[in-house]
Amino acid sequence: MKKQTASAAESEKNTMKKPYYITTAIAYTSGKPHIGNTYEIVLADSIARFKRMQGYDVRFQTGTDEHGQKIELKAAEAGKTPKQFVDEVAGEIKKTFDLMNTSYDKFIRTTDDYHEKQVQKIFKKLYDKGDIYKSEYEGMYCTPCESFFTASQLVDGKCPDCGRPCTPAKEEAYFFRMSKYADKLISYINEHPDFIQPEYRKTEMINNFIKPGLEDLCVTRTTFDWGIKVKSDPKHVIYVWLDALTNYVTALGYKQEDDSLYRKLWPADLQIVGKDIARFHLIYWPIFLMALDLPLPKKILVHNFIMMKDGKMSKSKGNVVYPEKLISRYGVDATRYFLLREMQTSQDGLYTPESFIERYNSDLCNDLGNLVNRTVSMVNKYFEGKVPEYNGTPNEVDKEFEEFTNSQIKKVEKLIDKYEIADALKELWVLISRTNKYIDETRPWELVKNEEKEKLESSIYHLIENIRKIGIILIPFMDDTAKNLLRQIGATEELQTWESLYKYNSLKNIKVIEKGEPLFLRKDIEEELEYLRS
Q: What is the rounded distance in angstroms from the CA atom of residue 269 to the CA atom of residue 57?
C-alpha cells in the first residue's frame, strides 16, 4: 500500500513536478481509531491521490501525538510504561490507516528522536526571543483536552471543549506570549480569505476566541514526566500543543542539518483538522509560526464529525463503530465511499446501519455495479468482447450525452479542487445515473434487432467511454474498485490518466473481459442490519 522508493529516473521526474504538501492532524495515542477518527485520513488520502493524478509531486503526512498526562495515566492503568503503551497504540493506528488503503508518505511519531530534539530547539528559539517566559499557573485543568482554563472560561463549571470536569491546578510553568500576536493574526486571516475553510470558521475564531482577548499560553508542565524535557530546565515537560503542532515542520527537517524537504515543501498546501482541535490549529499554530518567522500554511481545512443517532461517537456511550467491522464484510472501498459521501466537511455527517446498507446496495451495487456488468455483457454479446470504434460523428442523443458528460466531469473536478469531496461524489453519481439512463434511451437490444449497426456501435462505444471516465474519477476515492472496473473494460494504463478524461475517440483495439464480475454483491437488508447492530 505504501509507495516504493522511486528509481533514479522517477526521482528526476518528480523534481520536475510542482510539489504539494498535505497533512492530517496527528492522532492522539489514547486508543484504537473508530470510523469517525479514520474519516480524516481517508479524506486527506483522496485529495493526495487526486493531486498525484493531476501531476503534482505529493508529500502526504500523518502520524501520532504521543505525549502528555493523559497518556501517562492510561499507561499506568494498563500496567505499562508510557513508551510501551504508545508503541502499541501507534501500531494500532498505523494498522488502521493501512487497512483503509491510505497512501501516506510519512508517518511521524512525536516520540521520534529527531522530533524531540527539534522541539527543544524550537522552545529555546522562542525563549531566547522573549516570546516564552517563566511564571506560575493557577487555574482549572482538563486532562483529556490537555488544556488550562480560567474559571470564567468554564461552562457550568466544566471544560468548554469536551464538557468533562476540570481540576484545580497550580504550578510553576513557562508561558508563551500569545497575546502579542493577536492583532497580527486577525490581520493575516482577513488579508488571506482562502486561509481557513469553511468560511464560517474564520468568523468563529476571530469573534469567539481572538477578539475577547488571548491569554498567554502555558507551554510546560511539572506535575507529570511523560513528555519532551526543556533542555535547560528538565523538571519542565513541554506542553502537548507546542510539541504536537510543530510535527508538520520537524518531519520535513526544519532546524536539521538536511532541511531540503522543508525548503521544498513548506508552507503546506493543505492541512486538514477536525473541528474539536480547530482552535489550536487556527490560532496557536499560526501564532507559533509567526513567532518563529515562518510562513503560514496556504490553507487549513476544518471538517466536522460523523455522528450517531444518539450524538457523538464515544466509547463511554458504547456507540463506537470500528472500520474493521465494515471492511471485513463490505470491503475497504465501500467503507471509504460511505465516509466520503456521507460527510460534508462543513457539517456533521450521520452514520446509521440503514444509511450504510442503502449506500452499499443502491449506489454501489445498483448504480455502479449494474452499469459495468450490463455494459460488459453487451460488448461480449454483440461484438464478441471487442469495443467498437467510434467515427466521431455523434447523432443527437450521443451529442447531448457527450456534452452532459464533459460538463459533469468539469463540475466534479472543480468540487474536488475545492476539497468538497462529498459533493464531488454526489455529482459523479449523477453522471453514473445519466449513463444508466443512456442505456434505456439507446436500447442496444432493439438496435441489434433492427440492424442499426452504426447506432449500436456508437451506443456501446459511449457506454464504455463513460465507464472509463467514471473509473478514472473513482481512483482517488476507491482505488481497488476503480482498477477492477478499468481492467474489466480493457482500459490500458495510458487510458487511465486524468488528462485522458475529456477525450471521446481514444479507444482503439480494446477488448473487455469475457465474463463481467460484479463489483459489489447486493446484500439482504435485514441480515445486514442485524450484523451491523450486533
A: 12
**Cell digits for 214?**
488571548
Q: What CA–CA distance (Å, rounded) separates 247 from 235?
A: 23
Grid coordinates 490537555 are at which residue?
146
Cell output for 272? 486538514
DSSP state of 27: E
Identify the residue whose cell numbers are 528538565. 234
Total count of residues recorded for the chain: 534
Of the candidates 155, 124, 148, the residue with the CA atom closest to the CA atom of residue 215: 148
| Cα separation, 12 vs 7, whole angstroms | 9
Q: Which cell numbers in the block locate residue 528?
A: 445486514
Neighbours of 407 (CB within 10 A): 11
Answer yes or no: are the C-beta atoms of 126 and 180 closer than 8 Å.
no
What is the C-alpha to C-alpha distance for residues 31 and 508, in angstroms, rounded to an integer?
52
Residues with Cβ within 8 Å of 427's Cβ and at least 6 positions away in sequence, in order, are 408, 411, 412, 415
Strands 132-142 and 106-109: unpaired
The series of mean pLDDT values per 10 residues for the chain, 534 residues long, is: 48 75 96 92 98 97 95 95 97 97 98 97 97 90 79 86 86 94 96 96 93 91 93 93 97 94 98 95 98 98 89 74 96 98 90 96 98 97 94 86 96 97 98 97 96 94 97 98 97 93 83 89 96 92
Q: What are phi and psi of 165, to 5 degrees?
A: -65, 150
Cα angle: 110, vertex 33, 239; to 5 degrees:
30
Gyration radius of the chain over CA positions:
26
Place of cell 520535513: 252
Question: Three-state DSSP class for 132?
Answer: strand
Q: What pLDDT digit, counting tens, does each position of 245-292 carry?
A: 999 999 999 989 999 999 999 999 999 999 999 999 999 999 999 999
Q: Is the pTM of this model over 0.70?
A: yes
pLDDT by residue (tens digit) across 413-461? Answer: 999 999 999 999 999 999 999 999 999 999 999 999 999 999 999 999 9
**Euclidean distance between CA atoms 420 and 46, whole angstroms:** 11
Q: Which helix (H) or strand (E) holds 20?
A: strand 19-24
CA atoms within 13 A on the CB side of 86: 23
Q: In the structure grid, which three cell numbers stand for residue 213, read together?
A: 482577548
Q: What is the dihedral of CA 328, 331, 334, 338, to 10 degrees?
A: 30
Where does residue 70 fall: left (phi above 0), alpha (psi -120 to 50 degrees), or beta otherwise?
Answer: alpha
Please write the tens of the pLDDT for every residue from 49-95.
999 999 999 999 999 999 998 999 999 999 999 999 999 999 999 99
C-alpha cell at 46: 483522496
* Exposure on the CB side of residue 187, measured as CA atoms within 13 A: 5
